[in-house]
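Researcher: Final request for today, and then I'll write up notes for the group meeting. The sequence and the SMILES for zinc ion follow.
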Amino acid sequence: MSQIISVDIGGTQIRAATFHPGKNTPIQIQRNPTHSDTRTVYAGLISLIENVWPKEEKVRAISVAVPGPLEPKTGLVHSTPNIKEWVSFPLGEKLQSHFQVPVHLDNDANLAALGEWRYGAGKGHHDILFLTISTGIGGGVVLDDRLLHGWKGLATELGHITAIPDGPICSCGQAGHLEAIASGPGIVRYVVDHLKAGEKSILSGENFTPKEIANAARNGDRLSLAAFRRAGEVLGRTIADFLHMFNPSIVILGGGVSQSSDLFMKPMIEMMTGSVMDPNYVKDLVVAKAELGDEAGLVGALVQAEVLHPELEPN
Ligand SMILES: [Zn+2]
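Model: Predicted protein-zinc ion complex:
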């Protein structure tokens, strides 16, 4: 039997795992900090892959989830938010020539969508919209059982849709993107701005996390409740736009902020339902939480290899 090596490159941690195609339980899994004083990120990645390389069985492919814009077809990483040395970095080519097996790369949110489609909340669906809401907002779309990529593989950056023209500045530098409003830092910014404007809250200063705002909201803090309600409304209105574009049968929410969905789900659904051009977009639409959690990138990378190597699929 052969194995697939999945890699998930995060801002603080790189994980590598081995899988048998068709089974989403890893055979083994190892983690390393992304940054180290003694080696480059790339050298750390090579040694991590060598560590999980199976001794008995063959490796059929290496499949890698990378944050930030990249070209899946060529394996070229344009940039990644937390790895400054990877600018126009030919990661796919370098790994392929080092390990001499096929190497596949894709954006981490795209691969998480693919993972949820085959092994998570999207099982049985053919058309899914996936949003991951944490320090940023990422997205992935599967339509007719195929992940959408677009011309250069840059499609479905759903966090960077303009939600409020001239709104707060996004991590990408543009104004008013969904990510600048409904991500964790967007929710924190809302509370900080309103505290500065003199609103009362059990929170003070500006050094608190989205989780602390969620706890304050659950204790009845009005400003914190308003911050999540506003995030939910903006998400709902934006998701209605995505429904018009993609017509999915399920919307899957992942990422740390979605753990607080009790605080924004109701306004989100109300705004989404009230913003569609025809009720059929929301009739029988499922809205669900992601099921793969932390492993979404690794499992998604496995699915990418399974899809690209159908000869590996178990009967
Ligand atoms: Zn943006």
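Model: Residues 160, 170, 172, 174, 177, 179 surround zinc ion (CB under 6 Å). The chain has a mean pLDDT of 95.
Researcher: Thanks, that's everything.
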